[in-house]
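just leaving the lab so this will be short. what follows is a protein written twice so to speak, once as letters and once as structure tokens for the fold. can you read through it and tell me how you think this chain folds. thanks a lot i owe you, the record is right below.

___
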Amino acid sequence: MDWKKIVERYYPKYYTIDQVKVFVEREKITEAEFLEITGEEYVA
């Protein structure tokens, strides 16, 4: 499953930035992908 595409589709309309952080914590997307999607550095 391509989690990055899913998160991109639903952020920011349906997912908050905190919800996107959970994808990083659960290793579904990388910190680099988090930056690409949100435009912000990942901070745990």
